[in-house]
Amino acid sequence: MAGRVLRWTCRFVLGGLFLYAGFTKLFPPEHRFLFEMTVSAYRLLPEWGVIGVARLLPWLEMALGLVLMLGWVQRYVAAFVALLLGFFIVVMSITYARGVEVNCGCFGFGEAVSPLTLARDSALLLMAVYLAVSAWRRPSAPAAAS
Amino acid sequence: MKALERIAAFLGLALLASLPLAAQGPSAPAPGPEARQRCWGVDPNAPVLIEVYSDFMCSHCRTLYLETMRQVLADYASQGKVCVAYREFPLPNNKHSRPAARYAVAASRLGAQKWVQVMDALYYYQSEWTQNGELEPVMAKALSEKELEQVRGWMKDPKLEAWIDRDVAEGKRRGVGSTPTLFITANGRTEKVVGAVQYGILRRYLENLLARR
User: Fold this and answer.
1) In whole angstroms, what is the distance from residue B199 CA to residue B135 CA?
2) Do A33 and B198 touch (CB under 8 A)?
């Protein structure tokens, strides 16, 4: 029972945050350009790469958030979310270590990358890892039915 | 368990419904009334105002100025589409930043062209003068002997320090924590952008702002 409540909580918190994160980057439409500038300030990609990431990532975040909340193919989605969060943490850590001052671009705009941002994303990563591990440990629905 | 699922589904729907309200977010602090009086460009009332909080010893400020803002000055400010206001924000740990800022503010009294030349020199030769704090040789690369003499005279003016202090105080009021930080004001809204944005990306944003006015 406690495990199930924890999984539900993790799913809805993570899913809701991903949905929110993607939405704030897309709406209102001028936020798409602000997000491009946020990605650009990381100084990791050429301009075409910045535009590609800024166009794709918000939709990916929203899709992952929605699927997480609906509980579909949870083992794959949770594992992918964990990998994505791990990637964000690595990129932000490298940027922070290089002394590049940038907006995080996590939930809207105006929040600089800081140890607090990294700690928060690490907590989300732990939730995603827990969800993925628990989903892979449980038997899948068809197997349980047979 | 059914009740738990219902509560979770309700919370999920409430979250989805609240997204449009949350997305707009508050505007960044608006510029002070003097911002447009200080801008570089042919039109102080240009539709877009870009304020740059910058430190002369910061390497990302160098990148932003040389790779992005010079282009903005040439392509947008010179056509009256954008007005650019550079604000001094010398960070306390960078001991030569404040003297460099004083030189830049003093040189701005010579006019836009000389100010750009001084900015070019300070940022282009950043790696040289940041070692020893010797700014005069750098200024000599940008100004004639007569102009340099004028600037030397102005350097003693206490108004320069007051100018820089005002910029720093204004920056702190607006939540500037690092450099470079840009405030872009257009269509009644101000956005804060931190970091050295590539020119092509900033241009896309500016074109969008100019198209929507």
Assistant:
1) 28
2) no
A75 C-beta neighbours (distance < 10 Å), count: 16
Residue-wise pLDDT for B79-126, tens only, equals 999 999 999 999 999 999 999 999 999 999 999 889 999 999 999 999
Residue that has been written with the tokens 């994303």 in this structure: A121
Calculate mean pLDDT across residues A76-85: 96
**Is A101 close to B200, i.e. CB distance below 8 A?**
no
Q: Which residues of A touch B (CB under 8 A)?
A: 4-5, 8, 12, 15-16, 19-20, 23-24, 26-28, 30-31, 33-34, 36-38, 40-43, 47, 50-51, 69, 100-103, 108-110, 112
CA dihedral A130, A131, A133, A134 (to 10 degrees): 110
Q: Is B200 on the interface with A (CB under 8 A)?
A: yes
- Kindly give, in sequence order, each residue whose CB lies less than 8 Å from that of residue A106, ignoring residues fewer than 6 positions away: A21, A88, A117, A120, A121
Report whether B69 contacts B84 (CB < 8 A): yes
DSSP E strand boundaries for chain B: 48-54, 82-88, 181-186, 189-194
Domain regions of chain A by residue span: 2-136
Could you report the per-residue pLDDT of B20-50, keeping only the tens digit for each?
A: 555 556 678 888 778 787 888 888 899 999 9
ω into A28 cis (within 30 of 0): yes
ipTM of the complex: 0.86
Best mutation site among B204, B208, B210 for testing chain A: the one with the most A CBs within 10 Å? B204
**CA atoms of B14 and B9, how far apart (whole Å):** 9
DSSP codes, A28-91: STHHHHHHHHHHHHT--S-HHHHHHHHHHHHHHHHHHHHHHHHTTTHHHHHHHHHHHHHHHHHH
